[in-house]
Write a structure and sequence with these properties.
Chain lengths: 438, 311
Amino acid sequence: MNRATDNGQDVTARLGRRTLLKLGGLVAVGGAAGALLAACGSPAAPPAPSTPASAKPSPASAAPASAKPAGSAAASPAAAAKPSSTNGKLVRAAFVYLGTTNDKGWTNAHDDGRKYLEQQLKGQVETVFAENVPEGAESQRVFEDFAQKGASVVYGTSFGYMDFMLAAAQKYPDVKFEHNTGFKTLPNLGTYGAAQEDARYVAGLISGKMTKSNVLGFIGSFPIPEVIRDMNGWARGVQIANPQAKIHTVWINSWFDPPKETTAANSLLDLNADVLASVTDSPAMAQAAAAKKRYSVGSDSDQTSYAPDYMLICPFWVWGIHYVKSVQSVIDGTWKNSQVYYHMKDGVSSITAPNKIVPADVAKLAEDAIAGLKAGTLDIWKGPLKDNKGNVIVPDGKSIGDAFKGTPLPGQSAADGYVQSEQMNWALDNIVDAVPKP
Amino acid sequence: MNGELLISICVAAIASGTSILLPALGEILAERSGVLNLGVEGMMLMGALFGYIADVETGNLGLALAVAILAGALLALIHAFVTITLRANQIVSGLAISLFGGGFTAFIGKPFVGSVAPAQLERIPLPGLAGIPVLGQVLFTQDPIVYGSFVLVPLMAYFIYRTRPGLSLRAVGESPATADAMGLSVISRRYLYTLAGGALAGVGGAYLSLFYTPTWIDGMTAGRGWIAVGLVVFGVWDPWRAMAGAYLFGFVDGFQLRAQALGSGIPQFFLNMLPYIFTIVVVAIASGERVQKRLGVPTALGQPYWREERT
């Protein structure tokens, strides 16, 4: 390759300006052609799309999936302004998205929340959004732009926006900011997040009952608390429903790599795993499982269409509940820089109805658990909990909050503090493999 | 690790290796003619998306593959025009095309995210052959595109080394001025093979969106186009060696995930690293100048051809 590179530079030097001019012209022509193509392309009849490929709240590694070069062109704040009335009294809520609004996953869930907000507070709120905003310095420009253009409250929906939101919030102290899945705050910067482990637990109950081989498989992206708590939540459900079942895990070190997710799923299926779950961003796992007539558990938004006959159940998010609450408090003048962590009882962490293939008695088990979670009477982290190295994490009769070393955030329980912290770094004792060290 | 598991890894290795093998074969053609095409990733995405769209709209797999071929070739045409006619830097153009392909397909593919390919390639065990123990299971329980690649590799090797047009192809990549003096059209050959390379990349992409992960998702090739480019160096511009490399890569990739699932106790970050370490080592060995000379790297690779500068 060395040689090719040398030649390349050599040639560039030789051709110099002439080529550059030509290239410039070409780019212009290409741009025009692209625009034309795009114009022709977009009205093409879309097929009935149904579900997700989600983006992720957490680490910066989520960026590659969304930071498409062309995408950044769409990251212009004013792009989707929706002035709904002219009485001037409207509260403007702005949303900054990592992915596209129809990714049928993470961003899609937030955009459904935005639409819900518009509908619930009609005549009081107008919303604007920017999609495909990479988790980088560029996001700060987008946040500031929204602040400048009169937004009362700005929502950033990805973990990697954290420092840039912090900077924007410092510059615009009169504008309120809320960061999804983050942990830094200012007087005008709050955070909001939600526990999907509740829904995963319910999925685990069904998974444990539906397995015939007593071998289940889990595909993880990165071994960080947010993923591990989903894994353990699911594993706990499996354990309660079926103490004999064992779970094998595979980590792919990527949020998004469909072919690799497929290979990972197949490697678990080869071990005779007959129910798979994952915390990755594409539905590849569900498809791979269905191709071998095995069951799967979806995530993030309703993925049932990818494996209609084999997806047992699918946890998903309902962010609209938070957005309505938050904007209402802005309208009422009671907004605070709170740090909320929602549970299933709040409706933010939700789950689809069990698939029709799930027998009624198993579905009942799930429905009872959902009722318990909603009523606040069911604690999925109730002891005794042991990790797979023999350590007791939560003794009998205690809950995970009792094991928390540290101070929970204002308004949050110790259990919330635990599951969001680095202390969530162990695998439940029905999981065969240790959690890799990050 | 038992025999059955090993067989399943091998079956998976061939399937996942094929998605890299096809673009690599295409890249061999392009590079043999002297055109370095770094836009493979973008061309794979074009094939993946447009093959998928055709599949969704018509439900016809043959047509979907044809569309994927056209889509890949179309993007290759841009690269060919920029580098062959305008004689721009091949590396710059290739990189730009990769980025363009990623963004363009993400944009056009928006309405198609979230569905499953209605018509999917199926595995077809070949009657008779599939019954051979081990070998038959590994080689002959695959899908038609894999069988196609089994045929394509020897055909291409024969074409490159044993036929007259193949000799011309090599001549154009080795010494375009000499080829030109012989009366061979350098420009038209380079166009032809660059387009063929794009077409094969398109098929490789469609293989992912119609078979391996039968759906469309932005950026679903996740870097396989780049591995294909590396594989060409690994295979020292030889179809057979590229095939071996592709399957080896598929094997190492599948093996590390299975080793994790089996609870091998080897740190998974190390296992995840394996396929890439392996690629780097081989590329490093294969790029030694003496080795390259012996192996026959196309001498004019990456160089635009200027008739006026014939010496």
